[in-house]
Design a protein that fits this description.
Layout: H1 3-20, H2 33-37, H3 41-55, H4 70-81
Helix pairs in contact: 1-3
């Protein structure tokens, strides 16, 4: 994995843990935001908005269904940004 990819992944993770108010070691690439971290739909929309602002991309709200864990969020952001 390149340094730039790692940097982007870290930035995304920091946004997620900040909004979900959890510790970095509590979240894994596949831990589910809703089921394991008590995220509600409002938090999901906050994450989406923060990602759009951070990476200057537009993410359709229909993508929220894929943004259930860090892995899904990375994929959605990468597609939106054309990485």
């Amino acid at each position: 994995m390149t340094a730039i990819v790692e940097e982007r992944r870290q930035a995304i993770k920091e946004i997620v843990i900040d909004i979900l108010e959890i510790e970095a070691d509590e979240v894994t690439e596949t831990s589910l935001f809703k089921e394991e971290h008590d995220a509600d739909s409002l938090r999901a929309i906050e994450i989406l908005a923060a990602l759009e602002k951070e990476f200057n991309v537009v993410i359709n709200q229909s993508e929220l269904g894929r943004m259930v864990n860090l892995k899904g969020v990375y994929e959605v952001v990468a597609e939106a940004a054309g990485w």
